[in-house]
Amino acid sequence: MRLLANLALQNLGRRKARSLLLIAAVAIGSGVVFTGATLMRSIDDSMAVGFTRLGADMMVVPEGALTNITAALLTVEPTDLVLDADVLAKARIASVARAAPQKIARVEHSGIGSHHELVDLIGIDPALDFTIQPWLREKLGRELQAGDVILGAGRDAPLGSQLLIFGKPHVVYGKLGRTGVGTHERGVFMSFATLETLAASMPQRPAVLAPGKVTGFLIELAPGATSLQARFAILSAVKGAKVVTGDSSLSGIRQGLAALLKGILALMVLMFASMAVMVSVLFSAIVTERRAELGLLKAIGASGAQLIGVMVVEAVIATGVGGVLGVTLGVLVMRLYERSLVYYLDNIGVPFVWLDLPHTVAFAAAAILLAAAIGAVGALYPAWQASRRDAYDLVRGEG
Amino acid sequence: MFACRQVGKSYRTERGVVNAVAGIDLDVPAGRFAAIIGRSGSGKSTLMAMIGGLSRPSAGTIEVGGTDVWRLSETALAAFRNEKIGYVFQFASLLPTLRLIDNVALPAMLGRRQSTAATYTRASGLLDRMGLGGYLDAYPSEISAGEQRRAAIARALINDPALLLADEPTSDLDEQTEIEIMDELLAVNRELGTTLVLVTHNLALAEQAEQIVHIANGAIVA
Ligand SMILES: Nc1ncnc2c1ncn2[C@@H]1O[C@H](COP(=O)(O)OP(=O)(O)OP(=O)(O)O)[C@@H](O)[C@H]1O
Ligand SMILES: [Mg+2]
């Protein structure tokens, strides 16, 4: 009813300072929760992408092979030395969750780039690979098939265009994002089958292109397994191999961030709970202060629902406005800190991706609704209690 | 109009049980003007509140227009207060955040039996009749105590109540204002046939009533 809603609004206006403080408190609370939730989800998503892209925990290559260890990425370097493709599968090592074999052939006169350019042709097993395909930034709308190649970010050719390698036509299936690692940037990736077919056209065939041979394996550790365990297991099972471990600090960062995010979540829940308690305390005081008016409303025939309605509407307006304000503030703060946050995460190798718009809007709506709900719940009990008292006791200021 | 049977009200206080009203039997026929007199603290307001559906008796029954008031459900009781009773309190009783016109219209708006336009027309008519035609948009804090009391009477009348309960509506007002307000109440009683129960300390006023109820220590004295 308009008059009752009016009454609720006027009551808020009557104690401007108190109403503003309440709105400010709710704004801070819901702003923190909204910002926290949005950032948390964004960081979580970024890390999910970032860490799957970070590739392998370790790699297995022939003894004597050169390796390239960067902060973020383990990559196999071309070499004449080879391993048998099935050594790891045969050994069945418990501490290894996934092992992705790669064949790398460095070739000249391939027809790609300038005449004498050395090109790395990298064969992957699409079913086992977990370090190359996560970097696919764009690709054709179908599965990788024979004759397809994937280009590193450093190479330029439109998707779907034809690429002649040793005179044989290939289709550019996809392109990788920037990794900052040379072999990836200028590499030409393809399935083992494609690479083996191509080998027939090469003037001299590198040793690794022989069937059943690989340049090395990229390894993902089983959950809970240490790299030390895996290293010993692999070295004792595979002759003539060496194990190269990546930067172990990254898995530390991953675990640390996960714990931090859980902590933030717990804090947010506590924040909302304390907000609910605060609003409830405030409204039981407000109801007490207004019992004469509530009694009067009851005396002239307001029903219990209408009485509770006046108080709850007042609370919901205040906390709802607080929620809207909080979300607005949260958006501003995130805009403000976007640069430094993105920069920091980029530095530790996690490309930051903001939560998508529909999710952000959903979070904002949820924060506002929750704030309003806290108002409703906080005012409901004291209002309900007051509505059950005798009108006359309320009017006289008792009860 | 209403009948009280062995009505009592006791309050539990730290000093023990206070019997504000004890075993009152009272019959007031429809359309009558009754006056309740008695010393301060004798239980007049308590009795009025029980008749008006504002305060639940500790003992006895009260029938208003044939309905046993205190056996009604909460919702039915709210509707009863809204439709059947006009109550004028002993003290200022307007909602401070609403304009006079809104204060007067509020009971009708709660009941929703009339259109808003019709309600507001009626509310402004009543305020006009109480001599407050120029204060429709004023807030209670902007008018005098006597004017507030008159606005409260206008509010009590907005739903055309069958029973008008006025608890010392003219206390702490000057004689001239008291006479004006009393004239209005008596006019309502005579012209509309509204049963009027008036609590007063003014014996001259009480003498105009068709029925005088004298209360002392929570009981009726002959
Ligand atoms: N809520 C309460 N708790 C305890 N005692 C109460 C309560 N309300 C009223 N009383 C007592 O009941 C008695 C009657 O009070 P009531 O207000 O009905 O008197 P009254 O006749 O209207 O007096 P007045 O002429 O001053 O308005 C008084 O003694 C008062 O102290
Ligand atoms: Mg009294």
> Beta-sheet strand percentage of chain A?
15-25%
What is the CATH level 1 assignment of chain B? Alpha Beta
> How many beta-strand segments of chain B?
10
Structural class label of chain A? alpha+beta
Structural class designation of chain B = alpha/beta
Which oligomeric form is depicted?
Answer: heterodimer
The distinct bound ligands, ions and cofactors come out as: adenosine-5'-triphosphate, magnesium ion
Supply the number of helical segments of chain A. 11
Radius of gyration of chain B: 17 Å
- CA radius of gyration of chain A is 32 Å
Q: What's the pLDDT, averaged over the residues of chain A?
A: 84
Number of helical regions of chain B: 7
Q: Give the biggest beta sheet of chain A.
A: 10 strands, mixed
Stated plainly, the CATH topology of chain B is called: Rossmann fold
Largest inter-chain contact set: A-B, 25 and 32 residues
| Number of individual domains of chain A | 2
Distance between the termini of chain A: 27 Å
What's the gist of this structure?
Chain A has 399 residues and is α+β, with helices and mostly antiparallel strands.
List the helices and strands and how they pair.
The complex is a heterodimer of chains A (399) and B (222).
Chain A lengths: L1 H13 L1 H38 L4 E5 L4 E3 L4 E3 L6 E2 L2 H5 L4 E12 L11 E6 L11 E4 L8 E4 L10 E4 L2 E9 L5 H5 L1 E4 H8 L13 E2 L1 E6 L5 H11 L3 E5 L3 H41 L1 H9 L4 H44 L9 H31 L3 H5 L4
Helix pairs in contact in A: 1-9, 2-7, 2-9, 2-10, 7-10, 9-10
Chain B lengths: L1 E12 L2 E13 L4 E5 L6 H8 L7 E6 L2 E2 L5 H11 E4 L11 H12 L4 H14 L15 H13 L5 E5 L7 H18 L2 E5 L3 H5 L3 E6 L2 E3 L1
Parallel strand pairs in B: 3-8, 3-9, 6-7, 7-8
Antiparallel strand pairs in B: 1-2, 1-4, 4-5, 9-10
